[in-house]
Automatic annotation (TrEMBL):
PROSITE patterns: HTH_LYSR. It comes from Paenibacillus faecis. The keyword Translocase does not apply. Signal peptide: none annotated. InterPro entries: HTH-type_LysR_regulators, LysR_HTH_N, LysR_subst-bd, WH-like_DNA-bd_sf, WH_DNA-bd_sf. GO terms for molecular function: DNA binding; DNA-binding transcription factor activity. Keywords: DNA-binding, Transcription, Transcription regulation. Residues 1-60 form the HTH lysR-type domain. Belongs to the LysR transcriptional regulatory family. This is LysR family transcriptional regulator.
Length: 306
Protein backbone atom coordinates (compact mmCIF):
# COMPACT_ATOMS: atom_id res chain seq x y z
CA UNK A 1 0.00 0.00 0.00
CA UNK A 2 1.15 3.54 -0.70
CA UNK A 3 0.20 6.55 1.44
CA UNK A 4 -3.07 7.10 -0.41
CA UNK A 5 -4.06 3.46 0.05
CA UNK A 6 -3.20 3.68 3.75
CA UNK A 7 -5.50 6.69 4.01
CA UNK A 8 -8.24 4.62 2.30
CA UNK A 9 -7.67 1.79 4.77
CA UNK A 10 -7.87 4.18 7.74
CA UNK A 11 -11.11 5.66 6.42
CA UNK A 12 -12.64 2.18 6.04
CA UNK A 13 -11.87 1.43 9.69
CA UNK A 14 -13.15 4.83 10.82
CA UNK A 15 -16.35 4.15 8.88
CA UNK A 16 -17.03 1.08 11.06
CA UNK A 17 -15.79 -1.19 8.25
CA UNK A 18 -18.67 -0.04 6.02
CA UNK A 19 -17.30 0.12 2.50
CA UNK A 20 -20.28 2.09 1.19
CA UNK A 21 -19.79 4.89 3.72
CA UNK A 22 -16.00 4.91 3.26
CA UNK A 23 -16.34 5.05 -0.54
CA UNK A 24 -18.74 7.98 -0.28
CA UNK A 25 -16.42 9.86 2.09
CA UNK A 26 -13.42 9.23 -0.17
CA UNK A 27 -15.30 9.91 -3.43
CA UNK A 28 -14.20 6.57 -4.88
CA UNK A 29 -16.14 3.47 -5.90
CA UNK A 30 -16.98 0.76 -3.42
CA UNK A 31 -15.62 -2.04 -5.68
CA UNK A 32 -12.24 -0.29 -5.90
CA UNK A 33 -11.96 -0.23 -2.09
CA UNK A 34 -12.98 -3.87 -1.84
CA UNK A 35 -10.42 -4.82 -4.50
CA UNK A 36 -7.69 -2.82 -2.73
CA UNK A 37 -8.21 -4.71 0.54
CA UNK A 38 -8.54 -8.11 -1.11
CA UNK A 39 -5.38 -7.68 -3.27
CA UNK A 40 -3.33 -6.48 -0.29
CA UNK A 41 -4.42 -9.39 1.90
CA UNK A 42 -3.57 -11.86 -0.86
CA UNK A 43 -0.19 -10.30 -1.61
CA UNK A 44 0.82 -10.20 2.05
CA UNK A 45 -0.92 -13.47 2.96
CA UNK A 46 -2.69 -11.80 5.87
CA UNK A 47 -6.27 -11.04 6.94
CA UNK A 48 -6.85 -7.46 8.03
CA UNK A 49 -10.60 -7.86 8.59
CA UNK A 50 -12.93 -10.43 10.00
CA UNK A 51 -15.81 -11.15 7.61
CA UNK A 52 -19.35 -12.39 7.83
CA UNK A 53 -21.06 -13.47 4.61
CA UNK A 54 -18.45 -11.54 2.66
CA UNK A 55 -18.95 -8.26 4.56
CA UNK A 56 -16.21 -6.65 6.60
CA UNK A 57 -16.99 -6.80 10.31
CA UNK A 58 -14.02 -6.00 12.55
CA UNK A 59 -10.26 -5.82 12.42
CA UNK A 60 -8.27 -8.95 13.14
CA UNK A 61 -5.46 -8.67 15.72
CA UNK A 62 -3.03 -8.23 12.80
CA UNK A 63 -5.36 -5.64 11.30
CA UNK A 64 -5.49 -3.68 14.57
CA UNK A 65 -1.69 -3.46 14.75
CA UNK A 66 -1.54 -2.48 11.08
CA UNK A 67 -4.21 0.20 11.67
CA UNK A 68 -2.27 1.80 14.56
CA UNK A 69 0.97 1.82 12.55
CA UNK A 70 -0.83 3.17 9.48
CA UNK A 71 -2.18 6.14 11.47
CA UNK A 72 1.31 6.99 12.71
CA UNK A 73 2.81 6.71 9.23
CA UNK A 74 0.13 8.86 7.60
CA UNK A 75 0.38 11.50 10.35
CA UNK A 76 4.17 11.64 9.97
CA UNK A 77 3.79 12.00 6.22
CA UNK A 78 1.31 14.85 6.64
CA UNK A 79 3.60 16.57 9.15
CA UNK A 80 6.53 16.21 6.76
CA UNK A 81 4.59 17.85 3.93
CA UNK A 82 3.36 20.64 6.22
CA UNK A 83 6.91 21.42 7.34
CA UNK A 84 8.12 21.35 3.75
CA UNK A 85 5.47 23.89 2.75
CA UNK A 86 6.25 26.08 5.75
CA UNK A 87 9.95 26.07 4.95
CA UNK A 88 9.16 27.63 1.58
CA UNK A 89 8.07 30.79 3.44
CA UNK A 90 10.18 33.00 5.69
CA UNK A 91 8.41 32.84 9.02
CA UNK A 92 4.97 33.99 7.94
CA UNK A 93 1.95 33.52 10.13
CA UNK A 94 0.14 34.67 13.24
CA UNK A 95 1.10 34.21 16.88
CA UNK A 96 -1.22 34.95 19.81
CA UNK A 97 0.55 35.66 23.12
CA UNK A 98 -1.23 36.30 26.41
CA UNK A 99 0.62 38.49 28.93
CA UNK A 100 -0.52 40.00 32.26
CA UNK A 101 -0.18 43.82 32.28
CA UNK A 102 2.56 43.87 34.93
CA UNK A 103 4.79 41.41 33.07
CA UNK A 104 4.11 43.13 29.75
CA UNK A 105 5.28 46.46 31.11
CA UNK A 106 8.41 45.53 33.02
CA UNK A 107 9.61 42.33 31.34
CA UNK A 108 8.39 42.07 27.75
CA UNK A 109 8.40 45.60 26.32
CA UNK A 110 11.91 45.38 24.83
CA UNK A 111 11.41 41.83 23.57
CA UNK A 112 8.15 42.65 21.78
CA UNK A 113 9.78 45.62 20.04
CA UNK A 114 12.60 43.36 18.90
CA UNK A 115 10.27 40.64 17.60
CA UNK A 116 8.02 43.09 15.74
CA UNK A 117 10.99 44.79 14.10
CA UNK A 118 12.87 41.67 13.02
CA UNK A 119 9.82 39.61 11.97
CA UNK A 120 7.65 41.87 9.80
CA UNK A 121 5.83 38.93 8.18
CA UNK A 122 4.62 37.52 11.50
CA UNK A 123 1.44 39.05 12.90
CA UNK A 124 1.65 39.22 16.69
CA UNK A 125 -1.59 39.51 18.63
CA UNK A 126 -1.00 40.41 22.28
CA UNK A 127 -3.79 39.57 24.71
CA UNK A 128 -3.36 41.65 27.86
CA UNK A 129 -5.30 40.01 30.69
CA UNK A 130 -4.99 38.62 34.21
CA UNK A 131 -3.59 35.20 35.02
CA UNK A 132 -6.97 33.56 35.55
CA UNK A 133 -8.29 34.63 32.15
CA UNK A 134 -5.05 33.61 30.42
CA UNK A 135 -5.16 30.16 32.02
CA UNK A 136 -8.70 29.72 30.72
CA UNK A 137 -7.66 30.75 27.21
CA UNK A 138 -4.66 28.42 27.33
CA UNK A 139 -6.88 25.50 28.34
CA UNK A 140 -9.15 26.24 25.37
CA UNK A 141 -6.05 26.58 23.14
CA UNK A 142 -6.98 30.13 22.20
CA UNK A 143 -3.36 31.20 22.81
CA UNK A 144 -0.12 29.99 21.27
CA UNK A 145 1.83 31.16 24.33
CA UNK A 146 1.12 32.77 27.69
CA UNK A 147 3.51 34.42 30.11
CA UNK A 148 2.50 33.59 33.68
CA UNK A 149 3.90 33.47 37.18
CA UNK A 150 4.78 30.26 38.98
CA UNK A 151 2.87 28.41 40.22
CA UNK A 152 0.75 28.49 37.08
CA UNK A 153 -1.72 25.94 38.54
CA UNK A 154 -2.05 24.32 35.12
CA UNK A 155 -2.14 20.56 34.61
CA UNK A 156 1.48 19.74 33.57
CA UNK A 157 0.25 16.97 31.28
CA UNK A 158 -1.38 19.63 29.06
CA UNK A 159 1.28 22.34 29.11
CA UNK A 160 4.99 22.91 28.50
CA UNK A 161 6.52 25.41 30.93
CA UNK A 162 9.89 27.20 30.67
CA UNK A 163 11.38 29.42 33.37
CA UNK A 164 12.35 32.78 31.83
CA UNK A 165 13.13 35.07 34.75
CA UNK A 166 13.42 34.77 38.51
CA UNK A 167 13.42 37.69 40.93
CA UNK A 168 11.83 38.48 44.29
CA UNK A 169 9.10 40.69 45.69
CA UNK A 170 10.37 43.72 47.59
CA UNK A 171 8.78 46.51 49.58
CA UNK A 172 8.62 50.08 48.26
CA UNK A 173 7.86 53.03 50.52
CA UNK A 174 8.49 56.71 51.10
CA UNK A 175 12.00 57.62 52.18
CA UNK A 176 10.42 59.20 55.26
CA UNK A 177 8.80 55.94 56.37
CA UNK A 178 10.44 54.49 59.54
CA UNK A 179 11.00 51.10 57.84
CA UNK A 180 12.88 52.75 54.97
CA UNK A 181 15.99 52.84 57.16
CA UNK A 182 16.29 49.04 57.14
CA UNK A 183 18.67 47.32 54.77
CA UNK A 184 16.30 44.34 54.92
CA UNK A 185 13.04 43.80 56.72
CA UNK A 186 11.12 40.89 58.20
CA UNK A 187 7.56 40.13 57.15
CA UNK A 188 6.27 40.59 60.70
CA UNK A 189 7.34 44.23 60.52
CA UNK A 190 4.37 44.74 58.21
CA UNK A 191 1.96 43.92 61.01
CA UNK A 192 -0.57 46.77 61.31
CA UNK A 193 1.17 48.72 58.52
CA UNK A 194 -0.92 50.33 55.77
CA UNK A 195 -0.47 48.49 52.46
CA UNK A 196 -1.31 49.28 48.86
CA UNK A 197 -1.11 46.06 46.82
CA UNK A 198 -2.28 44.49 43.57
CA UNK A 199 -5.92 43.46 43.40
CA UNK A 200 -7.17 39.87 43.38
CA UNK A 201 -6.78 39.46 39.61
CA UNK A 202 -3.01 39.23 40.18
CA UNK A 203 -1.14 36.14 41.37
CA UNK A 204 1.02 38.43 43.53
CA UNK A 205 -2.08 39.38 45.53
CA UNK A 206 -2.71 35.75 46.48
CA UNK A 207 0.96 35.08 47.18
CA UNK A 208 0.99 37.96 49.64
CA UNK A 209 -2.17 36.84 51.41
CA UNK A 210 -0.68 33.36 51.81
CA UNK A 211 2.50 34.88 53.23
CA UNK A 212 0.58 37.05 55.70
CA UNK A 213 -1.37 34.02 56.89
CA UNK A 214 1.82 31.97 57.20
CA UNK A 215 3.51 34.71 59.24
CA UNK A 216 0.37 35.28 61.29
CA UNK A 217 0.41 39.01 60.62
CA UNK A 218 -2.43 41.41 59.89
CA UNK A 219 -1.41 44.39 57.80
CA UNK A 220 -3.99 47.01 56.87
CA UNK A 221 -4.69 46.52 53.17
CA UNK A 222 -6.21 49.90 52.41
CA UNK A 223 -5.69 50.16 48.65
CA UNK A 224 -5.83 47.57 45.87
CA UNK A 225 -5.12 48.37 42.24
CA UNK A 226 -4.14 46.83 38.90
CA UNK A 227 -1.57 49.58 38.23
CA UNK A 228 1.93 49.15 39.61
CA UNK A 229 2.91 52.76 38.89
CA UNK A 230 -0.16 53.98 40.79
CA UNK A 231 0.79 51.79 43.75
CA UNK A 232 4.24 53.35 43.73
CA UNK A 233 2.86 56.89 43.56
CA UNK A 234 0.57 56.16 46.51
CA UNK A 235 3.60 55.53 48.73
CA UNK A 236 5.20 58.88 47.95
CA UNK A 237 5.03 61.16 51.00
CA UNK A 238 2.60 58.79 52.75
CA UNK A 239 2.52 55.96 55.28
CA UNK A 240 1.64 53.34 52.64
CA UNK A 241 3.91 50.45 51.68
CA UNK A 242 3.55 48.52 48.43
CA UNK A 243 5.09 45.16 47.53
CA UNK A 244 6.12 44.66 43.92
CA UNK A 245 8.58 42.63 41.82
CA UNK A 246 12.06 44.02 42.27
CA UNK A 247 12.58 44.78 38.50
CA UNK A 248 10.05 47.60 38.93
CA UNK A 249 12.94 49.64 40.35
CA UNK A 250 14.35 49.99 36.81
CA UNK A 251 11.17 51.61 35.48
CA UNK A 252 10.61 54.61 37.73
CA UNK A 253 12.64 57.59 38.78
CA UNK A 254 11.20 58.80 42.07
CA UNK A 255 13.94 59.77 44.49
CA UNK A 256 11.52 59.85 47.41
CA UNK A 257 10.69 56.15 47.15
CA UNK A 258 12.95 53.54 48.76
CA UNK A 259 13.13 49.81 47.98
CA UNK A 260 13.66 47.48 50.94
CA UNK A 261 14.09 43.71 50.35
CA UNK A 262 12.84 41.00 52.72
CA UNK A 263 14.99 38.56 54.69
CA UNK A 264 12.94 35.66 53.35
CA UNK A 265 11.50 37.00 50.11
CA UNK A 266 8.72 35.59 47.96
CA UNK A 267 10.18 34.50 44.65
CA UNK A 268 8.75 35.95 41.45
CA UNK A 269 9.19 33.46 38.60
CA UNK A 270 8.10 34.33 35.07
CA UNK A 271 7.09 31.26 33.08
CA UNK A 272 6.59 30.75 29.33
CA UNK A 273 3.61 28.42 28.86
CA UNK A 274 2.76 26.59 25.65
CA UNK A 275 -0.07 24.07 25.19
CA UNK A 276 1.17 20.58 24.41
CA UNK A 277 0.27 19.22 20.99
CA UNK A 278 1.57 16.69 18.50
CA UNK A 279 3.13 19.24 16.21
CA UNK A 280 4.18 22.89 16.36
CA UNK A 281 4.29 25.15 13.33
CA UNK A 282 7.49 26.59 11.92
CA UNK A 283 6.50 30.04 13.23
CA UNK A 284 5.66 28.76 16.72
CA UNK A 285 9.08 27.11 17.02
CA UNK A 286 10.77 30.26 15.74
CA UNK A 287 9.02 32.59 18.20
CA UNK A 288 9.65 30.26 21.13
CA UNK A 289 13.36 30.20 20.26
CA UNK A 290 13.47 34.02 20.14
CA UNK A 291 11.83 34.36 23.57
CA UNK A 292 14.07 31.82 25.29
CA UNK A 293 17.26 33.18 23.69
CA UNK A 294 16.33 36.75 24.64
CA UNK A 295 16.09 35.91 28.32
CA UNK A 296 19.18 33.72 28.13
CA UNK A 297 21.25 36.68 26.94
CA UNK A 298 20.24 38.62 30.06
CA UNK A 299 21.31 35.98 32.55
CA UNK A 300 23.32 38.46 34.61
CA UNK A 301 20.12 40.30 35.57
CA UNK A 302 18.12 37.50 37.06
CA UNK A 303 17.16 35.96 33.73
CA UNK A 304 17.72 32.24 33.26
CA UNK A 305 18.87 30.55 30.06
CA UNK A 306 17.12 27.34 29.11
Amino acid sequence: MDIKHLEYFIEIVNSSCNLSIAAKNLCVSQPSLSLLIRNFEEEENVHLFERYKGRLQNLTPAGERFFENAKILVQNYQNMLAELREDSFQFKGKIVIGIPPLILGIVFADLLSEMLTTNPDIKFEIIEAGAYELRRMLTLKELDFAILLQPTNIDPSTMNEHLLQEDELTAFMSSSHPLAQNEKMYWNQLNDEHLAIFNSTFMIHHKLLEQFKKENIQPRISIMSASWDFLLQVTKHSKFITILPSPVRDFFNISDIIEVPFHHPITWKVILCQPKKDRYSHVERHVKKIIIEHFGKNGDHGFMSL
